[in-house]
């Protein structure tokens, strides 16, 4: 079924897990084992990314099918316009439809490796808005459509000073509203580490009449280098207190991971305290941090939200 229904339930905090397609068959097997354990905690849905430039199309389609029909979790497949003529887009959509999937994250996609700028291919789409329109035109209400939102504006318009101008930010929001007006049901945000920026973004979206659920994308910090790479790529603001906390421990992997769990938990607590009831976890295909953030209150760790049962964690987590 479409995930919008699950997200709209009153009073219920829900969470979801994002995965990406591993490069090897062993990797895929491992991912399914992990996913199976994570799905035992009842996420509202899980999603699988579409490799940059369509590089993982077949693997993504296959994983999405197995998630929906073997792991039995409500599944959302990402789909991008990069290198995708409309025939290929339709092949992907009709494949997932015939496999019973009803949820798509419609994206423009990044330029393929080695290219700076996104280029619309012949017979393809220029932006996510085109893709949303196409899905609604051709498939009616069959699919639940999610789109990406950028609390700090899209990186293309973030300047060398690390911020977007007020005008660029406003244009970005107006464009996001067009994606919603064209038929998107849910917004999931780009990762961020300054929770106030996310809360302001939600407020700004509401001000211009975006009423759909806006789901914060939370990426627990798992390792220092990965964090620096990812925030550099996405031009994400790193608040000074996070830099100060990470600097002295950056070579201690375990300490960084624990800090990442602590930080992710505090961010989620603040978001939940503002009445937002959904959390989307970028797992990077790892289970420990995402689950630890959702752990029960009163567990032996100090980091916890109390959204999942500890008994289940004890049964399923190999690291205990
Ligand atoms: P769009 O919504 O099309 O737009 C990006 C920006 O371009 C807009 O914010 C706006 O500023 C500008 N723009 C575009 N068209 C117009 C227009 N007509 N008028 C005015 N402004 C316009 N990438 C992958 O390759 N695979 C994935 O699986 C994937 N998953 C993602 C999941 C999430 C939750 C997020 C946030 C990003 C993901 N990405 C993924 C990255 C994404 O593809 C890139 O950020 C890409 O550069 C933009 O995609 P988009 O769908 O946001 O683009």
List the helices and strands and how they pair.
Blueprint: H1 3-8, E1 14-19, H2 25-39, E2 45-48, H3 57-71, E3 75-80, H4 86-98, E4 103-107, H5 128-139, E5 144-149, H6 166-181, E6 186-189, H7 195-207, E7 214-215, E8 217-218, H8 224-234, H9 240-246, H10 253-273, E9 278-282, H11 288-294, H12 310-316
Parallel strand pairs: 1-2, 1-9, 2-3, 3-4, 4-5, 5-6, 6-7, 8-9
Helix pairs in contact: 5-6, 10-11
Subunit structure: Homodimer.
Organism: Morella rubra
GO molecular function: FAD binding; methylenetetrahydrofolate reductase (NADH) activity
What features would you describe in this structure?
The protein contains twelve helices and nine strands. It is α/β, with parallel strands linked by helices and 320 residues long. α2 links the parallel β1 and β2 (45-48). The longest helix is centred in the last third of the chain and has 21 residues, at 253-273. Bound molecules: flavin-adenine dinucleotide (FAD). Flavin-adenine dinucleotide (FAD) binds at residues 49-50, 52, 78, 80, 105, 107-110, 127-129, 148, 150, 154, 156-157, 172, 175, 188, 190, 217. Homodimer. Keywords: FAD, Flavoprotein, NAD, Oxidoreductase.
């Amino acid at each position: 079924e479409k995930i919008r229904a699950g997200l709209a339930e009153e009073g219920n905090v829900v969470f979801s897990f994002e995965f990406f397609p591993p490069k090897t068959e062993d990797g895929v097997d491992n991912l399914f084992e992990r996913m199976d354990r994570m799905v035992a905690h009842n996420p509202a849905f899980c999603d699988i990314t579409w490799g940059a430039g369509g590089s993982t199309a077949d693997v993504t389609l296959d994983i999405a099918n197995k998630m929906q029909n073997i792991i039995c979790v409500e599944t959302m497949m990402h789909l991008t316009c990069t290198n995708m003529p409309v025939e290929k887009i339709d092949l992907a959509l009709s494949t997932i439809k015939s496999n019973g999937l009803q949820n798509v994250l419609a994206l423009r996609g990044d330029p393929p490796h080695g290219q700076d700028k996104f280029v619309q291919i012949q017979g393809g789409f220029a932006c996510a808005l085109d893709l949303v329109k196409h899905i609604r035109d051709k498939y009616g209400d069959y699919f639940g459509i999610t789109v990406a939102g950028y609390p700090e504006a899209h990186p293309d318009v973030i300047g060398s000073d690390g911020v977007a101008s007020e005008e660029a930010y406003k244009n970005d929001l107006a464009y996001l509203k067009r994606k919603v007006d064209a038929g998107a049901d849910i917004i999931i945000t780009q990762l961020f580490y300054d929770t106030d920026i996310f809360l302001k973004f939600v407020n700004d979206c509401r001000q211009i009449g975006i009423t759909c659920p806006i789901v914060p994308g939370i990426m627990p910090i798992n390792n220092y280098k990965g964090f620096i790479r990812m925030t550099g790529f996405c031009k994400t603001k790193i608040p000074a207190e996070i830099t100060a906390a990470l600097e002295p421990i950056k070579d201690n992997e375990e300490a960084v991971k624990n800090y990442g769990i602590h930080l992710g938990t505090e961010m989620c607590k603040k978001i939940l305290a503002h009445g937002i009831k959904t959390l989307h976890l970028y797992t990077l295909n790892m289970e420990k941090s995402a689950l630890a953030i959702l752990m029960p209150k009163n567990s032996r760790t100090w980091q916890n939200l109390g959204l999942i049962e500890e008994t289940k964690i004890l049964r399923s987590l190999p690291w205990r």
